[in-house]
UniProtKB/TrEMBL annotation:
Catalyzes the oxidation of 3-carboxy-2-hydroxy-4-methylpentanoate (3-isopropylmalate) to 3-carboxy-4-methyl-2-oxopentanoate. The product decarboxylates to 4-methyl-2 oxopentanoate. Its main location: cytoplasm. It is an enzyme of class 1 (oxidoreductase). Keywords: Amino-acid biosynthesis, Branched-chain amino acid biosynthesis, Cytoplasm, Leucine biosynthesis, Magnesium, Manganese, Metal-binding, NAD, Oxidoreductase. It comes from Agrococcus carbonis. The keyword Kinase does not apply. This is 3-isopropylmalate dehydrogenase. Belongs to the isocitrate and isopropylmalate dehydrogenases family. LeuB type 2 subfamily.
Length: 347
């Protein structure tokens, strides 16, 4: 029987609670495919216990899988032992960089039955194509004269022609499959060097896609439109940091961060892609069994779609749609939502 080798990093906080439900949904959705799951104990709790963030051996072992499912990593931001984003940078970003996850795909689709916080949401169905391996995330910075009145802290945003072009190409190819519109979001009125590079590459790739219309928004204005008229968006292409911020907002307007899924893609497949909810470990609700597992379950659907099992991915989406259709506004626990989705998958 065909196998799907899955590495699972449940992580911290609500990560284990939501990935448990995502794994149940995957098992229920796959037929004629053996899901071989390997669990990796990684995250803030594991680091505090063992001192390991992620070893080279663990990285090599993760690389042997077809895909990675990640819950969320990161502990209490007030814990001095976790200062400096030691887990976020040392684990999550390390994986994204090591496995060359240069496309961070973050779709938002408002289900008709889900209450958006917007008064007039209209049709919300867009995808943010967030660059995943460059920008200010690369760690190219430093502090000078630290602790003095003349301290200088630099965080350099790295934008390469190679890195920008490959993510822009991905965005245009995606738009060809959708409503054929690409919006570049940047801040080229201030960040002129990077902004000019992004715009020039978008213009040149656009010339190869005459059927795709293109526009540009400054990132501040893009936040207005995401709230005022989100229906104007189809595919948004943007850098790593703007994409991070826009996709939490996108999650909120799309019915809640508990529904927002993402994929860190290595489109060439030379390393496993990694799928995770947009949200974090939510320490404020962790351990109470009330996190919405839908974002993790939809991330599992993305995983299946990008790992050669689109029908199984679609089955999960249909089960999530059915679950949302049946919502009556009552509060449900994480496992009640998981149960309902698994029940409709196995019905
Ligand atoms: P967060 O996304 O964890 O939480 C923000 C708010 O959204 C909280 O009120 C939380 O309760 C709520 N929320 C999040 N997911 C939810 C769900 N599934 N159901 C219901 N409510 C949900 O963001 P934060 O508080 O800024 O970060 C907490 C920790 O997670 C930090 O350590 C941060 O670095 C880390 N983080 C990790 C990832 C990741 O691993 N991919 C992503 C973002 C943040
Ligand atoms: C996300 C998170 C991460 C990011 C953090 C935890 C490093 O916010 O996946 O959106 O900024 O990419
Ligand atoms: Mn984020």
């Amino acid at each position: 029987m065909e196998q799907l080798r899955l590495a699972v990093i449940a992580g911290d906080g609500i990560g284990p609670e939501v990935t448990l439900q995502a794994r149940r949904a995957m098992r229920a959705a796959l037929s004629d495919v053996e899901l071989v799951e390997t669990e990796y104990e990684l995250g803030a709790a594991h680091y505090l216990e063992t001192g390991e963030i992620v070893s080279d051996e663990t990285l090599a072992s993760l690389a042997q899988h077809d895909a990675i499912l990640l819950g969320a990593v990161g502990g209490d931001p007030a814990d001095p032992r976790l200062a400096g984003g030691i887990i976020e940078r040392g684990l999550l970003l390390r994986l994204r960089f090591a496995f060359d996850h240069h496309v961070n795909l973050r779709p938002t689709k408002l289900h008709p039955k889900v209450a958006s916080p917007l008064r007039e949401p209209g049709e919300i169905d867009f995808v943010v194509v967030r660059e995943g391996t460059e920008g200010p995330y690369v760690g190219n910075g430093g502090a000078l004269r630290k602790g003095t009145a003349h301290e200088v802290a630099n965080e350099t945003s790295v934008n390469t022609a190679f890195g920008v072009e490959r993510v822009v190409r991905f965005a245009f190819e995606l738009a060809e499959q959708r409503r054929k519109h690409v919006t570049l979001v940047h801040k080229k009125n201030v960040l002129v060097h990077a902004g000019e590079l992004w715009q020039r590459i978008v213009d040149s790739v656009a010339a190869e896609h005459p059927g795709v219309s293109v526009d540009y928004l400054h990132v501040d204005a893009a936040t207005i439109f995401l709230v005022d008229r989100p229906s104007r968006f189809d595919v948004i292409v943007t850098d790593n940091l703007f994409g991070d911020i826009l996709t939490d907002l996108a999650g909120a307007v799309g019915g809640g961060i508990g529904l927002a899924a993402s994929g860190n893609l290595n489109p060439a497949g030379d390393f496993p892609s990694m799928f995770e909810p947009v949200h974090g470990s939510a320490p404020d609700i962790a351990g109470r069994g009330i996190a919405d597992p839908t974002a993790a379950i939809l991330s599992a659907a993305l995983l299946l779609e990008h790992s050669g099992h689109p029908e199984a991915g679609k089955r999960i989406r249909d089960a999530v749609d059915a679950d949302i259709d049946a919502r009556d506004g009552a509060n449900r626990t994480t496992s009640q939502i998981g149960d309902a989705i698994v029940a409709s998958l196995t019905a």
